[in-house]
Amino acid sequence: MADIQDYNSTPKYETFSYLPPMSPEKIRRQVAYVVAQGWNPAIEHVEPARSFSYYWYMWKLPMFGEQSVDAIINELEACHRAHPNNHVRLIGYDNYSQSQGLAFVVFRGR
Predict the structure, then answer these.
(1) Of 2, 104, 101, 1, nearest to 44 (Cα)?
(2) Which of 49, 67, 98, 107 could be a cystine partner for 88, CB 3.0 to 4.6 Å?
């Protein structure tokens, strides 16, 4: 029972924040999943203090029809370099259901 965390002990941002941090390979697999589903990737960022109260800022336009996992990861890293203190998350928009198919924080701000 010692491994169970209290919900309020650390802020939770998306589904994967309840798991241990993902390795770069696991992040790559999640990005590949977004591409394989045919979802449109988009990148958002926000200051940690504003992450629960405000809309997140969009990094450029969504990457409609992007098929390159490397291009998506490069944009995630570019957003993180431009805003190193912000949370950066990847969203996969599902055109069919008109909703987010997947969203998770890739880089956590300070």
Answers:
(1) 104
(2) 107
| Residue closest to 37 by CA, chosen among 103, 106, 98, 101 | 101
In a 3-state reduction of DSSP, which class is residue 87? strand
Quick one: DSSP state of residue 3?
Answer: T
For the CA atoms of 43, 49, 51, 54, the dihedral, rounded to the nearest 10 degrees, stands at -110
Query: What does the pLDDT read at residue 11?
Result: 63
**What SS3 state is found at 56?**
coil
Q: Is the pLDDT of residue 5 over 60?
A: no
**Rounded mean pLDDT, 53-82:** 95
Query: In the sheet that 99-107 helps form, which strands lie side by side, from edge to edge?
Result: 57-59, 40-46, 87-94, 99-107
CA pair distance 27, 85, nearest whole angstrom: 20
For 80, which DSSP code?
H
CB 8 within 8 A of CB 61: no
